[in-house]
Amino acid sequence: EIASCLVGSEMCIRDRPVTAIISKQGWIRVAKGHDIDALGLSYKSGDSFKIACQGRMNQALILLDSTGRSYTIETHTLPSARGQGEPITGSISMPKGASIDAALTGSDTSKVLLASDAGYGFLTTVADLSSKTKNGKAALSLSKNAHLLSSLNIEVVEDKLLAAITNEGRMLVFPVAQLPELAKGKGNKIINVPSAKASTREELMIELTVFNPGDTLLVHSGKQHLKLKPTDIEPVSYTHLRAHETRGN
């Protein structure tokens, strides 16, 4: 383990692997290591597992709520997973009714893909998502009835491909580098989900996957799956998966 010491301070934070665990009722704790059975941990009555985020003890934890705001918590200040944790609301102040829907960590320059299920998204950095106040900061602008879909850490953007899938069984594949890099906002349309259908939640973007050229994509729909080889993806960037309907999965 590497000890990270602050000049003029007695505090010494070890650079060791940890996993932050967040429950559905908003309790948070941190466990040593990355090989953690988060589902098997003890939770308060009526509560259960929601999110696990692997990181380092000396890195800050970035949380994203259901309104698109981002918050920063110093990982080393979190309670141990030997207990059941403490309410996130003790560390941050969210809008009424909001919940934490994603967690990530990384170096300040680490790239992050933020997206909503209305089909919009953009690239940003951990530094841009970091906040010095308990109230957090605006990160992802959500259109009517839209939800945060994902926050994907992307260490290397160049040459990576992005696959976006809707619940109507449509898939679009294009280079990640084509997305704009923003400090905050709504982003560009990743895949064409009609705004009227998105607002009524009739059609939504339900999955995003970043992969390398040459990789094979395995698309699951219930008990069925479709294997897309590089030659299936390369000729056309737009693939219809209606025969392997993903609605509701």
State the strand order across the main sheet.
Answer: 5-3-4-8
Which assembly state applies to the chains in this document? single chain
SSE pattern, N- to C-terminal: EEEEEEEEEEEHEEEEEHEEEHE
The profile of the biggest β sheet is:
4 strands, antiparallel
Shape: globular
Number of helices: 3
Instruction: State the secondary-structure class.
Output: mainly beta
Cα-atom Rg, whole angstroms? 19 Å
Give the DSSP E fraction (strand runs of 2 or more residues). Answer: 35-45%
Low-confidence stretches: 235-239, 241-249
Protein model, in words:
By secondary structure, this protein is mostly beta strands. It has 3 helices and 20 strands. β18 and β19 form a beta hairpin. The model is unreliable at 235-239 and 241-249 (pLDDT under 50).
Features:
249 residues, 4-stranded antiparallel beta sheet, 3 helices, mainly beta, single chain, disordered C terminus, globular
Short description:
This protein has three helices and 20 strands.
What layout of secondary structure does this protein have?
Elements: E1 2-5, E2 12-15, E3 17-23, E4 27-32, E5 49-56, E6 60-65, E7 69-74, E8 86-87, E9 100-104, E10 111-116, E11 120-125, H1 126-129, E12 137-138, E13 148-154, E14 161-166, E15 170-175, E16 188-189, H2 195-199, E17 205-211, E18 217-221, E19 224-228, H3 230-233, E20 238-240
Antiparallel strand pairs: 1-2, 3-4, 3-5, 4-8, 6-7, 6-9, 7-12, 10-11, 10-13, 11-16, 14-15, 14-17, 15-20, 18-19
